[in-house]
Predict the 3D structure of the following.
Amino acid sequence: MNKPFVTRFKGNPILTKDDIPYPVATVHNAGVTKYQGRYIMLFRSHLDTGRSIIGLAESADGFHFAARPQPFLTPGKEPPFSEYEEYGVEDPRITLLEGVYYLTYSAYSRHGVRIALARTWDFQSVERISLITQADYRNTVLFPERTGGRYVRLDRPHSEISPWSIWITYSPDLVHWGDSQVVMKPVQYHWDEMKIGPGAPPIRTAKGWLSIYHGVFPTMAGAVYRLGVALHKLDDPAQVLGVCDRWILQPEDPWEVTGYVPNVVFTCGAVPEDDGTLKLYWGGADKVMCAGTAVIDELVDACLTHARPPA
Ligand code: BMA
């Protein structure tokens, strides 16, 4: 048996709807970062209407989280956000970039799903900046640094013609985005053959940007969501140096196998630590939040030594 890449925290799930002081049906797909030495988790919750909002939980150790009494981000009330967030806000990612914490999240409405950008300095107040994609996009992660003077993101447009793939897009100002190109595609009859999407915002390592992504496999019992890793070139992240052939995490625990949507592990965030490990966070079956640890060098080496073609 292959050695697992991710060691699950023994206290999983780390956050569930029972821990939330307001009524929610789920707690899942959270972005996580460190702020003033503490861990901040922005988690998605379904309401009983089926629409989603974003809450905030805090932790000293990255495993034991306490939720704030009020949600952090609910559908915007001012144009243009009021129209495009009418059906909810989902799957937040957090990137610390030039001293500001930026959030990218899915904005749902009758017009489809697109990505909104917001920022906070203190996780007390949050300021919406712009809607930064058209419909239909999900899973957009900002790199924590500029490349060649430009801001960079990985994103995942929908397509009727091609399996949904990972793209890269650039911006001079975080608002206007372009120069898109596809960088990674699902591989046929492979664990990620149906579709892939960016997961956690990329992490800088000595050998490249580590990207933890999700890949989906269709089965007769529905889709299975797993996590994989890819490495992008530091000074040109459009170049994928390697994609690990194996997944690094698949649904195994009971709360990953059954829940709101069965057989899902889905990440929106990972926190690198000074000791060379990272804390990985994932939603289990779209219902609870889970955590685990991995050794960054092992993930990087897996991209380079067990590589499958990126596209
Ligand atoms: C995707 C998104 C995610 C979700 C996943 C599994 O399409 O909706 O938010 O976790 O499906 O249901």
